[in-house]
Each structure stands twice: as structure tokens, then as C-alpha cells.
Design goal:
Number of strands of chain A: 15
Strand order of the largest sheet of chain A: 1-2-3-4-5-6-7-14
Number of domains of chain A: 2
Number of helices of chain A: 11
Strand order of the largest sheet of chain B: 1-2-3-4-5-6-7-11
Number of domains of chain B: 1
CATH superfamily of the largest domain in chain A: Aldolase class I
Radius of gyration of chain A: 19 Å
CATH topology of chain B: TIM Barrel
Low-confidence stretches of chain B: none
Order of helices and strands of chain A: EHEHEHEHEHEHEHHEEEEEEHEHHE
Oligomer: heterodimer
Helix content of chain B: 25-40%
CATH architecture of the largest domain in chain A: Alpha-Beta Barrel
Mean pLDDT of chain B: 95
Shape of chain B: globular
Number of strands of chain B: 12
Mean pLDDT of chain A: 94
CATH architecture of chain B: Alpha-Beta Barrel
Order of helices and strands of chain B: EHEHEHEHEHEHEHEEEHEHE
Largest sheet of chain B: 8 strands, parallel, barrel
Low-confidence stretches of chain A: none
Largest sheet of chain A: 8 strands, parallel, barrel
Strand content of chain B: 15-25%
CATH class of the largest domain in chain A: Alpha Beta
Structural class of chain B: alpha/beta
Chain lengths: ~325, ~300
């Protein structure tokens, strides 16, 4: 299985490659990709440097152009596809059907991967993308249980990549409009969820408050550690009780599932987190490299090293990890 | 004249409630009715045969009936149900994900798309038009300006693809594999005791300052405020919007339809937007603002 790591900057890219990534994925410095953060991502010059570095070490580079262009943005998004092709990336990660069509016709020689934002949760959906845009690979949304992944994998017409570690989106990706409901930006429109520009922190007599476009997302008592106010991970009131009504701040960690994923024929595991620092990437990539190496050494003997899990837990939201929807009971 | 449609019921109601609702709807001035379970595969109060029975009554009353597919397809059982819908010939299908697109196009069925299908640009619409797309819904997070551009571009391409706008009701904003209603009751999803039946308008999720943010409805999350574009109808008519969609609620729907019907006929009521199930109104998306915002109408 291929280890696919995030690269939000050139140092992060080099770190990922140096620590064992088989492939890295990056995006341009604009809203054409789903991790639009200030100070993050690549201009063409940096991207070219990154691609050269990765290729010199035998690693591949994927370019994410996985937001949805509206008429105003069409030329920009098309231009991003052309730039990625000209740079010589190994694949373009796309979600929008119009853009997939453009890439397939204009740059048929460049591999197309279906982004998780393309919301393909069944093999019939994958066939649609394969038949129409000849995608080579698809990234599955983080909503399927392991049995459901098995069902998809059995009939999939394309390679599959699944999320292995990082922030956990619990809504079917590509079709979550919660962020644009509270702010004016969503993953689909601007490549941003719960955008930083809308975040405010207030120290109050009741505790530390996090707000998103003035909406109270969470309030922390003394001794509670505060997390970024991603709107689905706040504490809200439903029928008189206050709790994490949608999801706790927790990260996905699928180390335990590696033998099963391998057996299902999954081609690649993906690490989330282009917004993370190079040192984070180093720790995560190194840990997963070790795990995958041990897996390749003999799947039957695979055991998760406790130090891997403690390393990853230390890098997780709230210090907690879950296998999320892969485990049916989570639902 | 602009058409009115009744969207699929997004909530979980008892079989009798659903039958009663559509028995009444047969007499309402709506042109199109979308039928079927679009949210959760565990909601099986009605079998497909029941939906066909309702469909035939509505068809006899002169309504165009469209069968809507489940939005989040996860299992083989989901695909089996989808195949049944996509192999019938009598009714148009509303495809709500790419699985449905695949099955509809494979069977060369004409289809329309619902608001959860990500159609953000003309290239995507053109592509689907070649495959049998007969009409489309604007994704809920898009607004007037984008729609206007899309309508103009489609016209320039010589494509006749009627546009529908979700205009009234709680906006469907997200789907998860997790059930938030079951989570509230500390029940596993697979043994949820069908608690959604107790919440025919969903469950309000508020901030700790009592701001109504969302409505939890099984695996789906809807807006906490009610979208209401009634005042934008004359503007939409000028733009060339073909249909506005009203999303069913279990109380007062006849009145909602009546008022929208008056507005489309140019008999605009002067009173404030409708307040049935108590919820604040919103229209932000239409004006390119956060969806929850209420912007003074510039339409009338």
C-alpha cells in the first residue's frame, strides 16, 4: 500500500518524502483546493521545486484541485489544471464533474484521481466516474464501515485510497454545506471549513469562548483544553442537554485496520493535514512508514506497536483517536 | 407561469401521516411532487409499492411525479433499492448521487438532479445534459448571482435545462453515516428504535446561547432557520427560474403552498413570511451571504 502524505509547504513536502512517503499531495495558493489557508500551499516555482525533489527520491506528487468552480471561477480552475499538467505532476485530484471532463479531454495523459470531495460512496458511483472521466483512483469518503469498504472494493473499477490518519470529517465529504451556512465559505466553494477569518476567542467570566461568525461553538471551563472551533465539533444544546451533539474533537487513526485494508486490495492510505507543520508530518509519516514496512514484512504477524499509537495520539485532536465509521458501532 | 414543486419529505413520518399528507397534496396547486425516502435506509414505513400507489393518485390529479433517490448510498441493500427506482420507466427519477446517475444513464432513463448534486458550473450541466438530464436543482449553498450566470451560459449554449430553486423550508445541509438522533438517545444506529418518528420536524440544535443553528434529522443535518425566498419569486421569474421547491412540513403546508401560489400569480400577500413550526427565517445563501443570514429582500 502506498503512503500518501500531505504537503502544505515545500519544507513539509521534503519532510514527508524524507520520512517515507510514497507520494505527497499539494495544492496551489488559491481556493482551487480544499485546504485554503493563509501562508499555505504552492506557487508554480515552489511546486516545481517540490516535484523535482520528490521525483529525485522516487516519490510521486499529486495536485489537489478539488473544490467546485462556479462560472466566475471557471477560467481560474481550468488554468489550475493546465498548470498542474505543465508542472508534470503524477496525478490531479479532482472532484467537480465539469473539471474532470476538462482534464480528461485536455490532458488525457495525466492521471486523474477522484477526490474525497467527489462523494463516491458506492461502486456504482465509481463506475460513473470511471466511465465518464477514466479516473485511475478514487479516495473514499470517511463514512463507510469496513464491511462497506469491502463491498465497494470488491467491485471497484478503479484503485482505492482511504483515509488513514488525521482530522475526521464525519459528514459525507463534498456535500457538507454547514460551514457556508454559518460563514460565507465552505469546502466546496472556497476550500475552507469553519474558516479562520470567522474565528474569535473571548475570555469571559463563564470561561474561554470560541466563536465562528459570532456563533458560540464552545465554551471551556478551567482545565479544559480548547480546540479549533470546527463547527461540527462544538458543544451544543439539544432538548435540554449540552454535549458534543455531532462529534467530539477526535482524530481518525486506522493503524489497527491495516491488515484488513491490505487484504481488501486498497492501493493507498492517506494522511490528512496539509495545514500541519513539517514536524507533525515527520512524526506521522515516520510512524506510518514503520507500520507499512512491518505489514509488508508479513501481514499475518502484523501487530500495532504501542509507541506508534502513543505518537499518533499525541498528535491528535484532544489527544484522542478513533477508527470512526470503519467501526459500525461508531455510527 | 413559474411552477411549484413539493420536495421529498425529509423527515420520518408514519405511513398514515404520509398517505394523508399526499391525499391532501393532490388538491394543492403544485405542479410537481417528488416522492421517496431520500435520507435514511432504515426508514421503511413505506415500501416502494406504497410510493407507487401514492404516485398514481398524484398522477391522476394531474401532478408530475418524480421518484427521488437516497442521498447517501452506503450498502448493497441501498443499491438494490436504487436499482428498482432506476429500472422503472413510468416516472422521472431525481438522481441524488453519482450512483443514481450511473444507474439512470446506464438504463438510458431521463433524469433530473436534486439540490445535493454538486452542479456548480455550465461544463457539468452540459456533460449531464448529453446523458439525459432534463432539469436540475441549484445546490442550496449557491445564490442568485451564480444562478443568473448559469442560466445565461446555458442559454448561450442553446441548452434548455429548466432550473429549480429550493425556496421554502429547512435546508438540507449535510449527510453522515452517523445518526445524530440515535446519538442523542444514546442508541446505536442499527437499533435506533426509530426515534425520528417522534420528531416530525427534527430536533433543534442550539448554541449555548439558545441560537437556533441546525435541525438534527437522523443522519442528516438541516438549517436551524427556515429558508424563505417567497419575496424573490418575481425576480426569479424574470431570471427564468422554472420551478421553486417547497420542502414538506407536517403542519400548515397547505397554507404555504397557497401563499406561494398567490405570489407566483402576482397576487402577493403583504404580510410577513410564514411562521408555522416556529423558526426564524433566513435567505442569506440567495444573496451570497452566510446561509443563516436574513437579508432585506431586493426582489419585490
Amino acid at each position: 500500500m502506498e503512503l500518501v502524505c500531505p504537503a502544505g509547504s515545500l519544507p513539509a513536502l521534503k519532510t514527508a518524502v524524507d520520512n517515507g512517503a510514497d507520494a505527497v499531495y499539494l495544492g496551489f495558493k488559491d481556493s482551487t483546493n480544499a485546504r485554503q489557508f493563509a501562508g499555505l500551499n504552492f506557487n508554480d516555482k515552489r511546486a516545481a521545486e517540490g516535484i523535482e525533489y520528490a521525483h529525485s527520491k522516487g516519490a510521486r506528487v499529486f495536485c489537489a484541485i478539488n473544490t467546485y468552480p462556479q462560472p466566475d471561477g471557471w477560467e481560474t480552475w481550468k488554468g489550475a489544471v493546465d498548470r498542474a499538467a505543465a508542472l508534470g505532476v503524477d496525478a490531479i485530484i479532482l472532484a467537480d464533474m465539469g473539471l474532470l471532463d476538462y482534464a480528461a479531454n485536455k490532458h488525457p495523459q495525466v492521471n486523474r484521481h477522484l477526490s474525497v470531495q467527489g462523494s463516491a460512496t458506492s461502486y456504482e458511483a465509481l463506475r460513473f466516474y470511471k466511465d465518464n472521466f477514466d479516473i485511475r483512483r478514487a479516495v473514499l469518503p470517511r463514512v463507510l464501515s469496513i464491511d462497506q469498504v469491502r463491498g465497494v472494493a470488491k467491485h471497484s473499477p478503479v484503485e482505492l485510497e482511504v483515509f488513514a490518519f488525521g482530522s475526521l470529517c464525519i459528514m459525507a465529504e463534498g456535500r457538507c454545506y454547514l460551514s457556508s451556512y454559518l460563514t460565507d465559505e465552505s469546502p466546496n466553494t472556497r476550500g475552507a471549513c469553519s474558516p479562520a477569518k470567522a474565528v474569535r476567542w473571548h475570555e469571559t467570566p463563564n470561561g474561554l469562548e470560541s466563536r465562528l461568525n459570532d456563533v458560540l461553538i464552545d465554551r471551556y471551563g478551567k482545565g479544559e483544553s480548547a480546540g479549533y472551533p470546527t463547527l461540527c465539533k462544538g458543544r451544543f444544546e439539544v432538548e435540554g442537554s449540552v454535549y458534543h451533539a455531532i462529534e467530539e474533537p477526535v482524530s481518525l487513526n486506522t493503524l489497527d485496520l491495516l491488515p484488513e485494508l491490505k487484504e481488501l486490495g486498497i492501493s493507498a492510505v492517506k494522511i490528512e493535514g496539509r495545514q500541519r507543520s513539517p514536524s507533525y508530518i515527520a512524526d506521522v509519516a515516520r510512524t506510518w512508514r514503520q507500520a507499512l514496512n512491518r505489514l509488508d514484512a508479513g501481514a499475518g504477524d502484523f501487530r500495532v506497536d504501542p509507541t506508534w499509537n502513543s505518537t499518533l495520539a499525541g498528535l491528535s485532536e484532544g489527544g484522542l483517536t478513533t477508527i470512526g465509521a470503519y467501526h459500525r458501532k461508531w455510527k | 407561469m413559474m411552477k411549484l414543486s413539493l420536495g421529498p419529505i425529509l423527515w420520518f413520518w408514519s405511513k398514515q401521516t404520509v398517505f394523508d399528507f399526499y391525499a391532501n397534496a393532490a388538491d394543492w396547486p403544485v405542479d410537481t411532487v417528488y416522492l421517496g425516502e431520500t435520507v435514511c435506509s432504515r426508514r421503511r414505513e413505506l415500501k416502494l409499492a406504497d410510493w407507487f400507489e401514492i404516485a398514481s393518485v398524484l398522477k391522476e390529479s394531474g401532478k408530475q411525479v418524480v421518484l427521488s433517490t437516497q442521498t447517501l448510498i452506503e450498502s448493497e441493500a441501498d443499491l438494490r433499492a436504487l436499482r428498482k427506482i432506476c429500472s422503472q420507466q413510468e416516472y422521472l427519477v431525481e438522481a441524488n448521487d453519482q450512483s443514481a446517475l450511473q444507474l439512470a444513464t446506464q438504463n438510458q432513463l431521463p433524469f433530473v438532479t436534486g439540490p445535493s448534486m454538486n452542479l456548480y458550473n455550465t461544463a457539468t450541466l452540459k456533460l449531464l445534459a448529453k446523458q439525459g438530464l432534463k432539469g436540475w436543482s441549484l445546490p442550496v449553498e449557491l445564490g442568485r448571482e451564480t444562478l443568473q450566470q448559469l442560466i445565461v451560459e446555458l442559454k448561450n449554449e442553446g441548452l434548455d435545462l429548466p432550473a429549480e430553486v429550493f425556496a421554502w423550508g429547512f435546508l438540507p445541509l449535510a449527510w453522515s453515516s452517523r445518526c445524530f438522533t440515535a446519538r442523542h438517545y444514546n442508541l446505536p444506529k442499527d437499533n435506533c428504535e426509530f426515534r425520528c418518528l417522534q420528531h416530525p420536524d427534527g430536533m433543534e440544535l442550539r448554541s449555548r446561547e439558545s441560537q437556533e443553528l441546525f435541525r438534527l434529522n437522523g443522519i442528516s443535518t438541516l438549517s436551524g432557520s427556515r429558508y424563505d425566498l417567497m419575496r424573490e419569486i418575481p425576480d426569479m421569474e424574470r431570471m427564468g427560474v422554472a420551478t421553486v421547491r417547497l420542502s414538506p412540513e407536517h403542519q400548515g403546508m397547505a397554507e404555504v403552498v397557497r401563499r406561494y401560489d398567490q405570489v407566483r400569480r402576482g397576487e402577493a400577500p403583504a404580510s410577513d413570511p410564514l411562521q408555522l413550526v416556529e423558526a426564524p427565517p433566513c435567505n442569506g445563501y440567495w444573496y451570497g451571504k452566510p446561509g443563516m443570514d436574513l437579508v432585506p429582500s431586493q426582489g419585490l
